[in-house]
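Model: Ready when you are.
Researcher: Fold this.
Model:
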Amino acid sequence: MRRLVRTLVCIGSLAAISPFVGAPHVQAETEAQVTSAACRVIAVPPVASTTSVRALAVRSGCSDKAAVRVQIKTSNPGPDKVVRRAAKAVTNGKVTTSARCTNRFQRFYVTAVDADGNVSRSKAARLKCGSSAKPLPTPPPTPPPSGDNDSSTGTTQENEVVRLTNQARKGSGCGALTHDPKLHTAALGHSKDMANKGYFAHNSQDGRDPGDRIKAAGFAPIRAWGENIALGQPTPAAVVKAWLDSPGHKANIMNCNFTHIGVGLFKGSKGPYWTQSFARH
C-alpha cells in the first residue's frame, strides 16, 4: 500500500497590502486523493483594548461559502444582552467585530453561527476597558532547538529545507531567503502545536492564523506573509518535492516578494510535522 502524504498551503498578506479576511487553502496528497477536515466555526473568547471589546470567529475545513454571524454578548442576571453583531460571507477565514466598553468590569462572550448551521459559543471573559484592559493573549516564545545545528538558526534538517527551497527559487530568478530566528520560532511552534493537539491546519485551535503567529514571534513590521505545512514526509528532500509538486505550495516558494523564511520540524506520533513560514518586512 502506498504511503499517503499530506500537504496544506496558505497565502495571505498584512498591513498596507490588504487585511487578511480568509486565505485560500489547497490540500493535496501524493496520490490523487484529496481530503478535508469537517466544516466548523469557532468563537474565540473576547479580549479588551483601551476602548473596546473585540470578538473573533473562525470558519475552517469548509468547501462552500456561507454567511457567518458573530455576536458579542454580556452575561447579566436577566436575559443576556447583545452589544454588537456582524456578519460576513466566507469559505475559510475569520470574522471580527468590536464593541465599545467602559472602565467597569463586565462578563462578555462571543457566539458564532454560519448558514450551514454550525454553532459555537466562547467561554465568558471578565473584561473592562482602559489602562488595565486584558491584553491579547500571546504564546511564550519557543526557544531554538538544541543540538543538531549546522547554523545559528534551525537544525540540520530544517536548514536543508531552506537550502532546497532557495535552490528552487534560484531557478525562477528569486533571491535567496534568509532563515530568520523569529520565523523559525513561529514555524516550529506551529509544528509542535499541531502534533501535540492532533490537528493539521493553518489556523491554530485558539483561532490564530499564520500572520498572528508570525507577529507574536516578534517579526515586525510585516508587509507580506505566507505558510506551507506538511505531514508525513520523512526527509527534507521529500517535503520540498511534495510542496513543489503542488501549485499552491510552489507559488509560496517561488514568491519573489518574500525575503525571509522559518522552517520548523517536529516529529509527532503521526509522523514529521513540517511548517514553512514566509514573510517580508
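Researcher: Now this one.
Model:
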Amino acid sequence: MMKRLSAAVVAATLGFFALGAPTAQADQPYWQCVTFARMLSGINIFGDAWTWWRQAVDKFRTGDAPETGSVLVFQPHGAMTRGHVAVVSDILTDRVIRVTHANWGGSRGRVEENVTVVDVSGQGDWSRVKVWYNPIRDLGTTVYPTYGFIYKEAGAALNAGTRVAQAGASGAQ
C-alpha cells in the first residue's frame, strides 16, 4: 500500500511540474537560432551565432542599419554564451524593428514571429538593444550588445559593382 501511495505522489508531482514546462511537440522541429536564420534569410553562414559577424565581414555586406531580411547578430552576453541571430521581418521606425527568430528566452526550440526589438544605444547604431519579452508583455529589462546587421548581398560582388559603376560614371563626363 505504501509503495502504491509513494508512486502516486511521485507521478502527481511529476505531472504538476510538467504542466509548467514547455513541451516539445512530436510534429514540430526543435529550432536553433542559427539554423532557422540561415534558412529564412538565405545567408549561408555556419557556426555559433556570435561567429557570424566575423565570417560575414568579407563575404556579405554588413552595417548598423536594419533592412528587411537582414540578420541582427547578438554578441555573447550573460547566459547567452553563443550569441544569437534574428532575421528582421519589419522596420517600424529608425529605432524599432520586428524580428523573427528561434530558440529565444522562454520559447526554447520554437520560432517567434514579429518580435519587437528596440535600439537603446546612445548613438542610434543598434549596438545595444532590448527585446520584447512575452511573459511580462513588455520589453525585457536586459540590454543586449550586438555586432550589427548582415545583409544578403555578397560584399565583394557589391563592392566590385559599385567600383564599375563609379568608373563608368567618371568616364562619361
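Researcher: Key takeaway?
Model: Residues 91 and 97 are 4 Å apart (CA to CA).
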